[in-house]
Give the backbone structure.
Amino acid sequence: MENARIIALFNAFREADPHPQGALCFRSPFELLVAVVLSAQSTDVGVNRATPALFAAAPDPAAMVALGEEAIREHIRSLGLFNTKARNILALSRLLVERHGGEVPGSREELEALPGVGRKSANVVLNIAFGQPTLAVDTHVFRVAHRLGLAVGKTPEAVERQLLQCVPETFLLHAHHWLILHGRHVCTARKPSCDRCMVRSWCPTGTLDS
């Protein structure tokens, strides 16, 4: 019965949005990687405001290295932690040139070896740029997975492991997008909109108090 509930739940997500998209704007795996690094403690809207000029000046790792840390910093000054992010973007660009021929690697280990790239960021790149069925667990996914009874883990990595075990393979490619979007727009941290929740019939939490 539990598997049937999960299938019905994700079927509802898929019927409503068959091809969910991430909110970050990019034109290549490199631009996606940089945007994901910039998104830490910043909104996607803010990142999308900062990156057009940055990517126009440096659309690939070699150009980013040539641009230099000071210029990178000026492009992203509107974002939180811009000093650290500028250093990381320069350093990861240099490593991409030196170790990967200027290409973004498609393995978790190699991605996580890059400055500023943690497990969640690597999962986003693997999923969106390389089509791998990974699950990037942010605060929205963490919250929604608990509320929907999909995971009970106390850490993002524990929740990721449990989701990978319980979400049927046919839904894995888009699962984290559906959960993120649901958490941002419906199942919000405060005052979730249960009255317009498309998966309320399969939610064990029910109507939540604020």
User: Anything to note?
Assistant: Residues 29-130 form a domain with the Endonuclease III; domain 1 fold (CATH 1.10.340.30). Residues 38 and 152 are 29 Å apart (CA to CA). The chain has two domains: 2-20+135-202, 29-130. The mean pLDDT is 94.
